[in-house]
Sequence to fold (301 residues):
Amino acid sequence: MHLTRLLHIQNPIIQGSMARISTPALVIAVSEAGGLGVLTTTGATAESLQQDLKTIRAATKKSFGVNLMLQQPNIAELLPVLQADPVPVVFTSAGNPAPFMKELLGLGTKVIPVIPNVKIAKKMMALGASAIVAEGLESGGHIGTETTMALVPQVVAAVTIPVIAAGGIGTAAGVKAAFALGASGVQVGTAFLAAEQTPVHNNYKQMVIQADDNGTVVTGTGGDRVRGLKNALTEKLLATTDPATFEQLSRGSLQRAIEGDVDRGSFMAGQIAGAIHEIRPAKAIVTELAKGVPTIIEDLF
Ligand SMILES: Cc1cc2nc3c(=O)[nH]c(=O)nc-3n(C[C@H](O)[C@H](O)[C@H](O)COP(=O)(O)O)c2cc1C
Fold:
């Protein structure tokens, strides 16, 4: 089935969840523009999630998604909200959605895990996932180990559910490339950091649009590798070998970036930042990305 039909959206353009950033303002703007806005629940409580859902539903009748980042300590507190008041789509990341996947699907919610490799893609399909996001290491935020270019066709070959490509896509040409690799849609984070409606300090947006092709760097190790814009903080993180110092520098650093602290913030962003040159309304970003969607998408399913 086409992704647009599966998710009830006009364009197969998904705004990837961004921790503490993709709050209702951005979600509403992207969904109203014909893409799929995805709400972050990082730092949310059951009450704040209920309020965010109310805000989104009051502002748009369009489809939207909610991200459950499964390393969050309070998933058990947030799940009942999504069970009592089912949402169109749940994107899961950084963990295994098996304990609640069947139940959400039974409520009519599409469940789409973000995956970093073929093995996990197959596992998620076996669990009944509606689609998957294959995310390459070009992306901003927490990253896996494979590139989008190599990962997407291998995942497409391994599963029979729609594959959404993510990581390094922020232009119409990138969208075209993702479809050429067999993807049924794209998930985009970094390009939306520069949307007018994105609730981050102007310093964050300026750093994104001023970044060049080698403007990002990866800090951390193992499952905690994070890609962000180079600044004084990333230099310090790369210089330290002491885990306690690393932890101390990192704690609260995304929030500091959101508030515009250019030296002490963690400005998570992906390699495509070098191709993002202006702050624009979310609608203009969705419209430009949609130019890369083939006019006739072969129905693979
Ligand atoms: C600032 C930032 C925060 C992110 N936070 C999350 C998150 O909380 N959960 C998640 O699943 N993905 C997160 N991501 C990944 C995005 O949802 C998306 O998959 C990724 O940005 C796509 O790659 P791109 O940055 O090259 O567009 C984040 C990305 C960025 C840039």
